[in-house]
Amino acid sequence: MRLARLLAWLTLLAAAPAAGQAVSVSPGPEAVSVTVYRDPNRGADQPFNLKWLNGYALITERRTVDISAGEAEIRFEGVAGGIQPESAIITGLPDGVVEKNQDAWLLSPGSLLDSSLGRRVHIRRTSLTTGQVTETEAVIRSGVGGAVVLETPSGIEALRCTGLPETLIYDRVPSGLSARPTLSVRVRSKAAARATITLSYLAAGFDWQADYIAEVSRDRSRIDLFAWLTLANGDPTGFVEADTRAVAGRLNREEAERRMAQAPPLNLECWPQGSTTSDLREFLPVPPPSPAAPPGSVITVTGARIRRPNLDSSVPITSIEAVQEELGDLKLYLIPEPVTVAAKSQKQVALLRRTRIPVELAYRRLVSGPGTHGLSPTLVTRNREKERLGLPLPSGRVDFYEIYGGRRVLVGRGELDDVAVGEPVELETGVSTDVFATVVKEKDGGAWDDWRVTVTNAKPNAVMAEIEISATAGAVRATGKPLLERDGRPLWRIEVPANGSATLRYRLKSGG
Q: Checking DSSP bridges between strand 489-496 and strand 463-469, what pairing results, if any?
């Protein structure tokens, strides 16, 4: 217990400014920019988990501070809670930085109690029978590492072990505690000065993704494509009117450890019967942390001109679109007007809109063993200006809609991987209930086995079917017309008539 007290006090003393040292406080930035990098390990079909975001952001703030002559401390309040202090870069100080510290002793029940060891507080008690409220002075003799022990005029006792509702009342917040995430630096200056500085740092707990809405024509020959850029901020700090960017691509970056001295939770537990002045035994568990965002939390949409599409509304005709720029081998999407990236929330801005994109519809399946499988309707085009695209497309989820009776109806869902300019765009909408492939192994032939695949089409119109065979091209011999090849696999491409079928027989090398 004594060791815990000693360590707590040493930590607080280390965070506190030296005696006589001037302290300047910057309560918040005058201007801020936020550049968000995606979680490289989260798939396009995986939704955000606001309580566990594994992307990060580069935060750049402009602040004005008054600096005293000599050695002084500057406290930057309101930085991101997930700041990585070792990444902080500060420019604009007259004579540079001597030392950087992240003050992670945030104001909480546990840190407030631990930093008040040996100090006098008031304890307020309410009688369960009469409702009478009494107050008395007490001195805190132990911290949150075990039962909270108080010394009162009546003797030594443990908090919450008298059987009465009890509350500790503090007359002030001890120095060294902050209600907001704070980064402090120690500086030396030859003369007093007012400086406009730039503070840049990396912070964990951010992510972003693209969310596409594809409106498909009735004949499925073209689509209108709209995309939201959805930013997620799981940090307790929000950023108001921030210049905001999103970066697509994979960086060669190792995850830095967050070396932050977190204040311990407040865990109140009575001692065994007879070991204190109380004969009660009570355990009050620490309540679970509040979720980063309640289920179904509101997604803020930027700009009055932008409306979130739903089953009854149309894709917005006018919207503020992100501007795509090159950033070396990465792609940067710049939001052209400041937006507020609120704490523990999501923000949506328009990413792109393209209309009347020509597409081809193909029903696809990769087959291996015997069985009957539904084919996947896939809309195929190419990412070129000729096809009314020609811009990098970041990965994301895709919702497909068609118009029936003047209303938009959801007809499929899929995902899109990152697509560079010039590459094919393949949008898989689901699994068909009308077009099937049946694979049968007809005969074991030793070195070569005989197989048959039959595609049946129950639709009133002909469809284009594409069957890939899970084997290398040299391991398959088809009867009749030679097979095509895609991604190193044999490909059978055939138009299947309305309410009809088509069959391919082929020989597959054993083990091929």
A: antiparallel
